[in-house]
């Protein structure tokens, strides 16, 4: 699967939330607590995600350049029914790079997911993921529309993942 995405720091999630509520067609889908364990891999990124206190998880492998702009992400997701066993195995075989805990509010708008994230030890962020379903021109147009509507300027964009920003085991 493929996304066009950005990640940006924000001073106030409440201000972004107000802008989302004013955006016709935007809908809040969920509010979640997530823990992501990032593992050392030779290429791309690999994380194991736990939502809330679930016993199962999801493996997410992805390739994405680290740049402060809209970037394409190629990814695969795989169910991990034995979360703790999978985490222990991957940590032992690959090494744990970072553990990131966050509160995430998920909004949907057309073929985009907008995440309002509060990340432990890092701060507040907005992540926009436009699923490339109608070609890159449409995805870029929608990204431009959303960054303008949400007041996200180029100086707020960040390059890496939360795992690379935390850079340590927790």
Please, could you describe this protein's structure?
This protein is an alpha+beta fold and 170 residues long. The protein is 25% helix and 45% strand. It has 4 helices and 8 strands; from the N terminus they run E-H-E-E-E-E-H-E-E-E-H-H. Strands 1-5-4-3-2-6-7-8 form an 8-stranded antiparallel barrel. The model has no long low-confidence stretch (mean pLDDT 95).
Distance between the termini: 30 Å
Shape: globular
Query: Roughly how much helix do the residues carry, as a percent range?
Result: 10-25%
- Give me the secondary-structure category: alpha+beta
Gyration radius, rounded: 16 Å
TL;DR of this structure?
The chain has four helices and eight strands; from the N terminus they run βαββββαβββαα. By secondary structure, it is of the alpha+beta class.
Labels describing this entry:
170 residues, alpha+beta, 8-stranded antiparallel beta barrel, 4 helices, 25% helix, 45% strand, globular
Tell me the layout of helices and strands:
Blueprint: E1 2-9, H1 13-22, E2 27-39, E3 45-51, E4 57-63, E5 71-80, H2 83-94, E6 96-109, E7 112-119, E8 123-131, H3 136-150, H4 162-166
Antiparallel strand pairs: 1-5, 1-8, 2-3, 2-6, 3-4, 4-5, 6-7, 7-8
